[in-house]
Amino acid sequence: MNILVINCGSSSIKAEVINTNTKNRLLNMQVERIGEAPTLSISTLSKEVECPDKEYDKVLDFAFKQLSEHLSTIELHGIGHRVVHGGSYFDRATKINDEVIAKIEALNDLAPLHNPINIKGIQLAQRYFKDYIHVAVFDTAFHHTLPNRAKTYAIPQALSKKHQIRRYGFHGTSHAYVSRTAADFLKTELNELRLITCHLGNGCSITAVEYGRSIETSMGMTPLEGLVMGTRSGDIDPGMISYLETKEGFTIKELDNLLNRESGLKGISGVSDMRDIIDRSTDGDDNARLALQVFTHRVRKYIGAYAAIMGGVDAIVFTGGIGENSSVIRHRASQRLDYLGAVINEDKNHDARLSEASNVVDFSMNHSRVKLLAVKTDEQYSIARQTAKLVAEKNKVNTVPPIPIAISGRHMHITKETLEQLFGAGYQLTEKKPLSQPGQFAANEQVTIVGPKNTLERVRILGPCRSKNQIEISRTDEFFLGIDVPVRESGKTENTPGCKVIGPKGEIMLEEGVICAWRHIHMTPEDAEIFGVEDRDIVEVEISQGNRGLTFGNVLIRVSPKYKLEMHIDTDEGNAAELSGGAVGALRSTDGAAKLKRKRID
Questions:
Q1: Which of 322, 413, 414, 594 is the most exposed place for a label (fewest CB within 10 A)?
Q2: Is residue 365 within 8 Å of 529, Cβ to Cβ?
Q3: Is residue 405 part of a domain?
Q4: Alpha-carbon Rg for the chain in angstroms
Q5: Are residues 186 and 327 in the same domain?
Q6: For the chain, what is the total number of helices (H) and then of strands (E)?
Q7: Does 10 have pLDDT greater than 90?
Q8: Is position 98 annotated as part of the catalytic site?
Q9: Do 444 and 352 fall into the same domain?
């Protein structure tokens, strides 16, 4: 499928036609230096063309006119647009209509340098290429899985809600793409890995990807937070704002310009290009040396923090213009990570060269427990692929049945060994009643869970016995017990907290195993075919039966011949929708058709 990908920036316009089956680039167009002396280049022309005007709207119109003429011999199937900020509205690629444009426009205050320009590109492209489906792909979408603890700023929450102030994260298309690419290279399912992905370019961000989900990222409400960047300051003491306002008389607009365009590497060294900084540092420029040290110090600090948040890491991935191409930065950022189990191979790092044919390089030692990888990102291809998926669904309409919903109270899955420790040697679980999933049952046996703060009594055991212990509780239970519990897929108990468990014949201190279960849907392969989903897709489910109708996002699909169709949520989630027995949900539809709105963990 041939997809035109359009990326409108504040001073540049980029467009590519990509065949999503072969990854071949059929046409490339770039416009640089808009506002100064804009020039246009197209891969089908032998030389650059000067734009007749430097004002953005006129340059954009000129560029699209040239683009449409050069596309006359290429069969297009759809058009994908990069949009920087999707706010809380968009957690995946979305077909563009008037409502979508209005929502993107409503976010202009959160991304004043990007979203208005993105909208201009969309609306003009709709006029020039009106016969095609247009799709918006959002930089923020991948980070919609950030937990509240990671996305909440410690300011009065009334202000946060009123003005949509929270951490959104950016570069999500790149972080998602390199995470999947790294997992494929490591021949491991993404849901089995803890990754730290470092997108280092003129703009920089780091993301903690835990089992396929973004759970922390360095950029926040805007792309200014986090790492030191080309011209952005990254993290600063907020008190600096009022201090500079007092001492220098800066206006808010001047401070915004200072932190976004005159700070970062440029502020320290005078130049923003890392290649120039490395050259100057070699020649003895102290400011360039300081910029290099500050930049890599911040990268290494975030890597350590994110490893701590995930309780470890399996691979650290470097991508973006700097991350892919600078062996010096990879060397400095990877130093002193031995404590994590990440040991750099200096020869491999020095010799690493990324290309389309070789898009991943492992530059860690063979014995390194944590792999160090350089991965070539391809945001344009990722946008094209996501667009192609929605284009392919144009005429696809599924008649999908409702999904039964089960509310799971707190419970414990137990090993045979632990059962005997708590109930006595040779003890067997006795069935109280069967559960909806074949072969599973609620047992008569109950235990007491002891946390640092309080105790939960009469916690039921579910049978049969499993290969590892697991206790599933709600957020309410978490705070009642006084422990810090992550949201996890069943079975993913590594680096989770433990607790004391008391039975009638003994007690045991679990080292790990307490989770809040990731809401999920059990399906058979036949169900998955009907719904048009695959194992490990993430979907939305709309609930309308309760007194408080709502839509649950970030719902995991689990497919197995052993399952029966049913969605599982915990008591807090059931109470939020005021659900009672017999509740059902529906996969959320798009464009008025009863078809699935979904995204993959990729």
A1: 594
A2: no
A3: no
A4: 26
A5: yes
A6: 19, 30
A7: no
A8: no
A9: no
Tokens for 438? 């074949």
pLDDT attached to residue 540: 87
Q: Letter for the amino acid at 119? A: I
Buried residues in 197-224 as b, exposed as e (16+ CB within 10 A): bbbbbbbbbbbbbbbbbbbbbbbbbbbb
Domain boundary among 116, 138, 160: 138
The percent of residues above 70 in pLDDT, for the chain, comes to 96
Strand order in the sheet with 2-8: 49-50, 39-42, 25-32, 13-19, 2-8, 78-83, 134-138, 94-95
Q: Which of 57, 98, 139, 273 is catalytic?
A: 139
Closest CA to 170 of 232, 262, 236, 79: 232
Single-letter residue type at 366: N
Q: Is 222 found in the same domain as 341?
A: yes
Strands, sheet with 204-210, edge to edge from the N-terminal-most edge strand: 213-217, 204-210, 194-200, 315-319, 371-375, 360-362
Q: What is the pLDDT of residues 560-585, one digit of tens each?
A: 999 999 999 999 988 888 887 778 88
The alpha helices in 285-411, defined as continuous H runs, are 286-310, 320-325, 327-334, 346-351, 379-392
Helix, strand and coil in the chain, % to nearest 5:
35, 25, 40
pLDDT tens-digit map of 92-120: 899 999 999 999 999 998 888 889 999 99
Asked whether 36 and 50 are in contact (CB, 8 A), the reply is: no
Write down the residue that tokens 């991943």 correspond to: 360
Residue the block writes with tokens 């978490």: 478
